[in-house]
Description:
Sig_transdc_His_kin-like_C, five-stranded antiparallel beta sheet, Beta-Lactamase, EC 2.7.13.3, 5 domains, alpha+beta, membrane, ATP-binding, 17 strands, transmembrane
Amino acid sequence: xxxxDIQTQRHQGDTAQRSFGWLGPLAVLTALASALAxxxxxxxxxxxxxxxxxxxxxxxxxxxxxxxxxxxxxWQTRRLMRERRAGAAAAGLHVRIVGLFSLVAVLPAxxxxxxxxxxxxxxxxxxxxxxxxxxxxxxxDIARSYRELxxxxxxxxxxxxxxxxxxxxxxxxxDRKVFHDFMNSRAIFLGFPLAMILEPDGTVxxxxxxxxxxxxxxxxxxxxxEASDKEALCLFPRSGNIFRSVLKLEAHGGRVLxxxxxxxxxxxxxxxxxxxxxxxxEALEQKKAGIQxxxxxxxxxxxxxxxxxAIWFGLNFAxxxxxxxxxxxxxxxxxxxxxxxxxxPVRRGxxxxxxxxxxxxxxxxxxxxxxxxxxxxxDLIDRxxxxxxxxxxxxxxxxxxxDARGLITIANPSTExxxxxxxxxxxxxxxxxxLPEVTALVAEMSNGRQRLMQQQIQIxxxxxxxxxxVRVTSEHARSEERDLVITLDDITDLVAAQRTSAWADVARxxxxxxxNPLTPIQLSAERIRRKYGKVITTDRDVFDQCTDTIVxxxxxxxxxxxxxxxxxxxxxxxxGDEDLVETIRQVIFMMRIAHTEIQFSDQLPGGxxxxxxxxxxxxxxxxxxxxxATEAVAAVPDDERGQGRISVLLDDTHPDYLILAVTDxxxxxxxxxxxxxxxPYMTTREGGTGLGLPIxxxxxEEHGGGMELVDNPAxxxxxxxxxxxxxxxxxxxxxxxxxxxxDSRRTSL
Length: 749
């Protein structure tokens, strides 16, 4: 069967060769060469210019070739149809393939001709619309306006200098050197490398030249006559980029100020260039119709040549290509469906097509092996990816992966929470932009050969300061460009708890060591005053003042010791169901009475809000916060204070917590280190012990809540946000555990 196919193909090839001889190939090659030459001439890629006569001769030559090709194709088609009627072998398949070749050639050729013509028309039309014309006109106007802007700027600054020189007339009369120095300073300030004062006849009275200006000319007599004392006259340069200006000095008896300086060269170059462009555009617009007709005709001729040539090639080589191409198409379809085990039979008599079949079989074999390997690798990578995503999503520490360029390639949800940003603002961004605090550590890690480095940093995000333990790990220690993994552990609460524990121990020791001798000291001072008060007759006031000072300072020390004791031995909260609204109202009522100069406002629910808390301790905490707010308002200077305001807001819309916000318009909190005010003995208030806020924080933590210090959202001042759970969550004594959970809830609150 294979030999029969080959013999049939050879017989048909010999028939075609006998039918057409050299005429068919010669006509086709000549037509294609003519089409290519026509395209190159129209595209301006040859020395031959597409003039009217050239286009006419090209049109006639291509038309003749088209008629010749039509005759050849018609003759061969007639012969093919006659062979089909005669029942020649494979004639029907030959006809169908020729028809397919013809259809495939007709559609693209027609489409290309139509699209090329329409594209040319549509491509030219937008360039000759009213908006483009207006744009070209505006370009000229803009260029001229830019030149005039330079002139107006020069004139305005000339008037400024003239006004200064008019006011300095006294200096001119008194001391010419001082006047010269003054004029020099004004010229330098206004950017004038050349400035002169001229007589009306052109005589130079004063001249300043900071640097030589090439091509600058002195004003003509006409320019001096035209100069006015009201408005500076700008002199356009005929060449170069030096603008000049003249203005009469009213106080100098009609003398004229003449200045010059270099301006942007574009102010001189752009106007003529823009005008030339507009003229060229108008010339093109007049030739648009002729260009469209010529190109449309040539596109049509080229399309016909390509079409007829394709049909001729289809008629001559269709049968030779049918069998091997059909096998390859079938095999390719199998590969497209995912069957990489398909093989095509190779027949040596098909020449290059046989080699193509061998190459195709080799390709499918390689594709099969590669596909199997890629499938296995993809499955392994997918399993690892899912496992990595689960691990990263489950860890509480923030994990960031960066490449050798410092760009973030991966980040887990904990990183988003720590840095208070979204994943879109992390991936693909530089680590120095997202987390500049680790820039030095990353640079040291990248330049060194260590596999692991760590340090503690302080970061502030949305007004919240956190202590982060940073660990930077290298994936490849010996590589010049390494990917790094950064781990962020939030140890804010751990550090605060350690400090609080240490200060509590210090407070206990201080209270124990100091409290015992205080009472004897106070009693001794009072006894000295009673016993020797009547005996001392001289300096009695000094004696009383000294004893009073001893008693008063002992009382102050006792108060501080009591605060130490309160902080060190915080009583266990007696948690019960209490009305939080009533507790807050009582605190506000007492503060209104004590501070009538401050305007208090509250936004509390109408009914009671029952929650589990120790009424005494929570009332103490709220009182302390409101008291701090009154002191913050009082700390504002009288001339800046205005009406002091404190507002108390209770929000019960959160599903798990009751949130209390106390806002004032006082001096506010410091920008840096504000969260450290919740640690013992950290205070910004003169005379403060630094234990008020830590006690409040400890009370809230004992209740399973927390607090944070933020700015007043409405302007000056600060806001303290406190929250306690709506239901009982922790037992008293679990202070450290509650504190460790507090910071993790701040983001959602």
